[in-house]
Structure formats: structure tokens, C-alpha cells
Amino acid sequence: MEQLPTPPGERPAAAAEPSASPEPVYRATATATISELGIVTEWSEDAALLLGYAPSEVVGLPAAHLLADAFDEVARPTPPGPERWSGTVALRHRDGRRLEQALLAHRRTSSDGPTRWFVVSAVAGEAARAPRNGPLSEWAFAQSPFPLAIFDEDLRLVRANTGMERALSLTEAEMRGLRLSDIVPDPVSEATGRTMRLVLETGEPQYVDAFVHPAGTEPEHGWVTSLAPLRDPDGRVRAVSMAAQHAAGSEEDQRQPLAPDDAASAVARIGTTQDSARTAQELLEVAVPRLADFAFVDLLDPLPRGNGPSAPAPATPVTVRRTAARSVLRGQPESRVSVGERTTHPPFSPPADCLAAGRGAVYGTADPGVARGAVHDPGAAWIADYGAHSMMVVPLRAQGTTLGVALFGRHQRSEPFRPKDLWLAEELTNKAASSIRNAPRHPREHTSTMMLQRSMLPRSLPAHSALETASRYLPAGGEAGLGGDWFDVIPLSGARVALVVGDVVGHGIRASATMGRLRTAVRTLADVDLPPDELLTHLDDLVIHLSADEADRDGEETAGGIGTTCLYVVYDPITRHCTAARAGHPPPVVISPEGSAYLLDVPAGPPLGLGGLPFETVEVELPEWSILALYTDGLLQARDHDIDEALDSMFTALVRPAATLDAVCDRVLTTLLTHPPDDDVALLVARTRALHADKVVVWDVPPDPSVVGQARRDATDQLTAWGLDDAAFVTELVVSELVTNAIRYGEPPIQLRLIHEDTSLICEVSDASGTAPHMRRARIFDEGGRGLLLVAQLAQRWGTRHTAFGKTIWAEQSLIG
Predict the structure, then answer these.
(1) What does the DSSP assignment read for 68-91?
(2) 127 — phi, psi (to 5°)?
(3) Could you tell me if 539 and 525 are in contact, meaning their C-beta atoms sit under 8 angstroms apart?
(4) CB hemisphere CA count around 293 (13 angstroms)
(5) Does 179 or 554 have the greater pLDDT score?
């Protein structure tokens, strides 16, 4: 049998036992597959990282050659039997070191017959170590129910309590550092892992209607897994807690009839999550089988928002969505409508009458109203098919708004519903309605809104020689849902940069979609170099059109984006001038290099969408290394202090020295946000830089065609002085074309300017004419008309910038590559 490569040198002594107090931070999972005969058939890159052997050196060899001790001494299976083995094994590293490594092995039998062992082991980082009894443990046990486990940002287990160890038949030490899919290779664990990733990304609690179970055992029914984010004091999600609990109490509890004395404990089990569908299901888990044999919850579709109608009109069909159903019979056969499916309750049916009246009622199935509704409602056929004899219909109402209806039926037990049962059902539905009304909209909508928002916000801010920037965005933590705050950093011509922060009125998908439209419009308008006041005027027109479009689509007047605010700032590193205009938005904060803080006096301007009112700009000169802070009003609307106090706190946080702008952002948020924000918060911080005279050169050009050659020579000489001889050929062509066009078609005075940034070279030619050139395709025998086409092909980008005194044609070359 082939042997593993001989380790170089002598084997070193065994490493000393690590300290018991620190725990390693796990960064990878080594995996291998071993055949029933003990031959290594698969070897991962992380396994190579752990032991130093490449896959080609291990695959096909006996696994026993990796062990530092005899195989029969360490590989003796332990409970729970042949399907799984776990323990600590002495392994031999390629360099001869002895490694005491915890292994977890799962026995896997494929459909074609061969049996293999899937072996996993957590690989610790070399330098990072975390204290076992640190803040993470305190947060976990303070915020999570039993049984529980804690997974870090890489979704690796770091803590598990006794209940979780008992449920999975593994100790915490055997699971530590592994992902859930490694601990229990099972579809449920894979689905739970995906949901945990969603918790990390959104910061929102989630749940799974199942619980992982050890391999070789049957899954336990009636369990729900709650997944909650664990945050550090700064509000950052640092871990996920996984807690499992029975969905509807013990089996003994479920066999006992639900009495009025049980109302308090039953109500407490409803509304444990922010998910409307889950809340409806919890209502039915309490009611079936202890109160009813069959029940369903239908929510109005669409669900009322804000101050909508208090109830559907009488004698009208009602469109609903079946949100939850539960029965003592397997599969809820009584429900002819699938959960999630839309249906309509006909006029004068018990559910429609209940919704119109806004109060509950008890029916015998022989009542005329029940019979009349069954004629027009195929979904009511369950009454006759299953011999139902008694029924309760109760509206879900909260804060004066009707949200839906719950129906409870009996066909197994002989007792009809009594008034005390109706009172109990109303107590349960009131709690469910309150939770649904106060929770954010359906988690899928909430998650979709957040993903839409994140896709539209910049993933990273562009590096630029004019400004150093950093940003933060925090979604609202209250009941309103995600809003439409946004920010952007837009490179402009002439080495300038635009900073923009905006706030779309409202919350939800519509606000996020409107934000995306406005952000795109700002980028488009900025690309044609509109001044800030003109840009806001065009943006104002766009909001008016969007509002009109929404009104046409919805068939009624709607505010659309009216009330949206925006702040637009342009900084020029050559002149160090900052030009700003705002539309109803808070003014920016300026921190001077000496440490003084003040609000930039930008004329307020009306919010966008009002129309007919002007916007004004202010232009100031900022010293190099000044700090600009742009933000949305959610940052100042904290619960525990007024705006003046918030401004003072923000000034203090911005003035304090910090190593990076990221540290400045974190300090501002930590200082101002002592609670999860009630509104979205966008923060954009920039430190100004300057392009000094050695990076910019300007020549006055006489309006004479004979000077074009001299302009080319001047530009070439300057490139030599800058050490940019490689760019001379393209620059000569660009200068020749732009200067020639200015002399032929422009008006004096004419200027040529070269700007040398870190990674680009910009050539600008200005004249006093307001007429902009346009690129055209010359015909075969034309003597001219190819110049701008040539410039467009040679330059990375080019364009026209209009000024108060004429125009500037510019072309930018990349100096990289």
C-alpha cells in the first residue's frame, strides 16, 4: 500500500494543552469522505489547510495513515450508534505535528448501495481567539428561549445549552465551530441555515416550522424553530440565536378543552413573531383542538393600511386570502382553499356579514344564513361533507380597522358553541389582530423592500482624489417599515464630486421604488453637469409626474412622492468651492480643520413635488481637510432628546479626532441612536482634499488657427514635466481637436486646462459660446466631422459642461493600464 509523504525533519513534541478560558474562532470546515473500507475518497481544500496534505496526496489511501495513534483505539463508535460517530482524534499533520482534533462523522448510504462516512471538523483561526464568557454569551442567554444554540456571523456554532445538546444528542464541544448542515446533514438544517443567513442580512427575526433532528431518528412534529438576531451595543448583528419550542404546548394541554380561565395563558402564545401568517397560525394552534375541530383565518386582500376603511360594505362580496387553516383531521381536508390562495366570500354569507357588522356570531349549520351562504360559496361545502353542526365567525379588528375573519367549526365533538366560547374566541382573535396590525407587513414584503433598497444604494463609495468618504445606512426599527432614504457619491467632470442625500416620503416597496427612480434621475442629471438648483428643479418636475402617474394608476389622488426632500452638494478640489442646494432637507454640517462645527447656511427650498417654487444655491470656500456631514432627518429624531440636543451631540461626535471617517460615522450613530431608529437613517461623511497648483495648468488661447500647434506643444511639455510621456500621443490629438473646434465655432476668451489626478488626466477647453457640439458620423468625402468621434474613441469619457459664461468641452483619459 502506498504511504503518505514522509514528514520532513523530526516530529516535534506534542503541543501543550491550550488554556481552558479562551475559545478559538472557527473560520473553515474540513470535510472528507471515507469509504466503508476506510479509504479516503474525497478531501476538501479546508482539510488540506488543516493537515497540510493536498487532495492528490490523500485520496485513495487508507484513512488510518492520517492518525497519530492506532485506529482501533480512537475510532470506536459511540452512541447514538452506527449512523453517527463523534470524538477527539489524534491526527498527524504533514509536517509531523500531532493535532488533537474533534471529528464528527455521518454514515451516508447512497441510492446505488455504497456506504460512506462523511467526516467534518471545524478549523480554528490561527490568531483570533475569543473569550468563552464574553458579551456574546450574555446577549444569547438574555435574549433567547430554551433549548438554544448560538451561531456567529459565519453561521458556526459557538454556544449550545443543555436542551440543545439533549435534542441533537451531541455535546457543545462536539458541535462547536461547525455549521448546522455539518452537525445534522438534513434538508431541514439546510433550510434553517438559509433562513439564518436571512436573519444576518436583514436583522429581522425568522422562524421555521420544523426542528432539526439527529440522523437516523424520525423528525419530531409540532415544533417551531425561532431564529433571532443578536446585536452588540452598537446595534450591529453579530450572531443568530436558534431556539426550538413546541408550537402549541404539550400533548396533554392539547387534549384539554379551552376554558375561559385559560384565556390569559392562551392569549400569551399568540403574536410571538412579526409575521402575520405565523400569528394567524398561532391563533389556530391555540384554538384547535381545544376550542374547535376546524378553523381558518382569512385576511382581507389587500390588507388595510393606515387609516383605511373600518370594514367592508354590507351586502358585497369580500376578497380575502386564506392565511392559516388547522383541523383535527390530517391535512385540513375541510379547507377547500389552500393557504396563501385568494378566495371570495359571497354577500350574506356568515364571513361577509361578520366583516360588515364588525362583531362575532354563533351559528347552527341549519341557520338560514349558513344555508344561503353555502349555495354561493363552494368553500362552504365542508359543512355538509363533514357533518358540522356548530360554527363561530369572529372578525379580526384592531385600532378600529377590520383586518379579516376567523371561522371556528365543530364536527367531531357534540357540544355546540356557547356564548362563553364566543367570548373566548374574541379574546384570541383580538390579540391576533393587534399583533398583525402593529407588526410590519408580511416578512416577504419587508425582506423584498430591504433587498430592493440595498440593490439601489451604492455597495461601495468610489475612491476620488477630491474627497475621502464614508457612509452608513440603518433601516427603521419600528412598525412603519422601511423607508426611501438614499445617498450617493457621483464623480463629475473637472475632478469635481457631487454628494447627494435624499428622503422619500412614506415606507414600503413604493417608497423604495420611488427612491430608486429619483436616485437614477439624479445620476442622469448630474452626468450633464446641471448646477444644483437646476438639478433640483428637474427633480421637482419628476416627482410631480410620478405623483400624477400614481394617481392615474390607483384611480384616486395620491401623495406619490410629494414631500420628498433632497440635498445636493458639489465640491471642486481645484477652487475648493462647495456649491449646495436643498429641497426641504436638513442642511449639511461642516467641521473646519481647526475643529469648529456649524450648519452650512443653504437656503431651505421647498420639498420636492410642490412645483412652481425656486431653489437657491450657496457657494462657499472650504479649507482643505474640512469635513462635510450629510444626513437624513431620522438621525435627529431620536426618542430621548429634541433636535437641538441631537445637533449638539452630532457636532460633538464629529469634532472629536478619529483615525478614519468610518470611525466618525460609527461614533455619530452610537452617540445619537440609543434605540433602534423609528425612521430610516442615512449618513454620508466626506473629508475635502485639494488639487494644488502643481497638478493644474491653464493656458489662454488666442482665437487664431495658427496657435493650435503651440497648444499641442505646451500640453506635451507639461506631460513630460508630470512624467506622463506615455499619454502624450492621445493628449495631442484631443488638444488639437478641442482647441480647433473652439477657435472655429466658439467665442473668445478661450482657455485650455490640463488636470492631473492620481489615476486620470483631464483635458478641458472653454469658450464663451453657449452652443454645444455634437458628435456626427462623417461621410466618405467629407473633409471634417471626425474630430469628436475620434475624441470619444480615445478618451475614457467626455462631455460638455455649461457655465454662466459659456461652456467647457472636456475629455478624460485613464492613466491605469
Answers:
(1) SS-HHHH----TT-TTEEEEEEEE
(2) -110, -35
(3) yes
(4) 20
(5) 179
